[in-house]
Amino acid sequence: MIRRGAAYGPLLPDGVLDDDGGDRGLMFTFVGAHLGRQFEFAQTQWLNDGVFFGAGDARDPIAATGDGPGDYTIPRRPVRRRLRGVPRFVTTRGGEYAFLPSLTALRWLGEQTD
Fold this sequence. Notes:
The chain is α+β, with helices and mostly antiparallel strands. Helices cover 18% and strands 22% of the residues.
Protein backbone atom coordinates (compact mmCIF):
# COMPACT_ATOMS: atom_id res chain seq x y z
CA MET A 1 0.00 0.00 0.00
CA ILE A 2 1.43 3.37 -1.04
CA ARG A 3 -0.18 6.58 0.22
CA ARG A 4 0.74 10.15 -0.60
CA GLY A 5 -0.77 13.54 0.08
CA ALA A 6 -0.08 16.81 -1.69
CA ALA A 7 -1.10 20.30 -0.61
CA TYR A 8 -2.54 22.78 -3.09
CA GLY A 9 -3.40 26.47 -2.93
CA PRO A 10 -1.91 29.33 -0.93
CA LEU A 11 -1.21 29.01 2.79
CA LEU A 12 -3.25 31.11 5.19
CA PRO A 13 -1.22 34.14 6.31
CA ASP A 14 0.41 33.97 9.75
CA GLY A 15 -2.06 34.65 12.53
CA VAL A 16 -5.16 34.08 10.37
CA LEU A 17 -7.40 31.33 11.78
CA ASP A 18 -10.56 31.83 9.72
CA ASP A 19 -11.02 30.58 6.17
CA ASP A 20 -10.65 33.43 3.69
CA GLY A 21 -12.40 31.51 0.91
CA GLY A 22 -9.21 30.66 -0.97
CA ASP A 23 -9.07 27.34 -2.80
CA ARG A 24 -6.66 25.21 -0.75
CA GLY A 25 -6.44 21.77 0.73
CA LEU A 26 -4.92 18.34 0.40
CA MET A 27 -5.18 15.78 -2.35
CA PHE A 28 -4.74 12.18 -1.26
CA THR A 29 -3.55 9.34 -3.50
CA PHE A 30 -3.54 5.64 -2.68
CA VAL A 31 -2.04 2.85 -4.76
CA GLY A 32 -2.55 -0.70 -3.59
CA ALA A 33 -2.99 -4.27 -4.70
CA HIS A 34 -6.42 -4.90 -3.13
CA LEU A 35 -8.86 -2.03 -2.66
CA GLY A 36 -11.07 -3.86 -0.16
CA ARG A 37 -8.34 -5.29 2.07
CA GLN A 38 -6.21 -2.16 2.09
CA PHE A 39 -7.89 1.23 1.49
CA GLU A 40 -11.47 0.27 2.36
CA PHE A 41 -10.34 -1.58 5.49
CA ALA A 42 -8.23 1.34 6.73
CA GLN A 43 -11.02 3.83 5.95
CA THR A 44 -13.87 1.92 7.59
CA GLN A 45 -12.06 0.25 10.47
CA TRP A 46 -9.34 2.70 11.47
CA LEU A 47 -10.80 6.09 10.58
CA ASN A 48 -14.57 5.76 10.86
CA ASP A 49 -14.95 3.11 13.57
CA GLY A 50 -12.94 2.78 16.76
CA VAL A 51 -14.20 -0.74 17.50
CA PHE A 52 -11.17 -2.22 15.72
CA PHE A 53 -8.83 -0.90 18.42
CA GLY A 54 -11.28 -0.88 21.33
CA ALA A 55 -12.43 2.76 21.17
CA GLY A 56 -16.15 2.21 20.52
CA ASP A 57 -17.74 4.62 18.06
CA ALA A 58 -14.81 7.07 18.06
CA ARG A 59 -13.84 8.53 14.68
CA ASP A 60 -10.62 10.11 13.51
CA PRO A 61 -11.12 13.91 13.80
CA ILE A 62 -8.95 14.68 10.78
CA ALA A 63 -9.70 12.08 8.12
CA ALA A 64 -13.00 10.41 9.06
CA THR A 65 -16.30 11.07 7.35
CA GLY A 66 -19.36 12.32 9.20
CA ASP A 67 -21.29 15.42 10.11
CA GLY A 68 -20.66 17.61 13.11
CA PRO A 69 -18.60 17.02 16.21
CA GLY A 70 -17.80 13.57 17.55
CA ASP A 71 -15.82 11.74 20.16
CA TYR A 72 -12.18 10.76 19.73
CA THR A 73 -10.13 8.34 21.81
CA ILE A 74 -6.38 8.75 22.17
CA PRO A 75 -4.98 5.26 22.77
CA ARG A 76 -2.41 5.48 25.52
CA ARG A 77 -1.33 3.48 28.51
CA PRO A 78 -2.30 2.83 31.18
CA VAL A 79 -5.58 4.69 30.49
CA ARG A 80 -6.99 5.98 27.20
CA ARG A 81 -8.03 9.60 26.95
CA ARG A 82 -11.47 10.32 25.45
CA LEU A 83 -12.14 13.74 23.93
CA ARG A 84 -15.80 14.64 23.46
CA GLY A 85 -17.30 17.08 20.98
CA VAL A 86 -14.22 17.29 18.73
CA PRO A 87 -15.18 19.41 15.69
CA ARG A 88 -14.86 18.12 12.17
CA PHE A 89 -11.69 19.50 10.59
CA VAL A 90 -11.97 18.21 7.02
CA THR A 91 -14.55 18.65 4.28
CA THR A 92 -14.42 16.05 1.54
CA ARG A 93 -15.13 17.55 -1.88
CA GLY A 94 -14.98 14.41 -3.94
CA GLY A 95 -13.36 11.10 -4.57
CA GLU A 96 -12.64 8.69 -7.33
CA TYR A 97 -11.43 5.14 -7.78
CA ALA A 98 -9.10 4.72 -10.75
CA PHE A 99 -7.71 1.31 -11.61
CA LEU A 100 -4.25 0.64 -13.04
CA PRO A 101 -3.48 -2.37 -15.23
CA SER A 102 -1.42 -5.16 -13.70
CA LEU A 103 2.23 -5.75 -14.63
CA THR A 104 1.07 -8.71 -16.71
CA ALA A 105 -1.32 -6.48 -18.64
CA LEU A 106 1.34 -3.81 -19.13
CA ARG A 107 3.79 -6.42 -20.47
CA TRP A 108 1.11 -7.74 -22.83
CA LEU A 109 0.34 -4.23 -24.06
CA GLY A 110 4.07 -3.60 -24.57
CA GLU A 111 4.40 -6.73 -26.70
CA GLN A 112 1.72 -5.64 -29.17
CA THR A 113 3.12 -4.67 -32.55
CA ASP A 114 -0.01 -3.46 -34.30
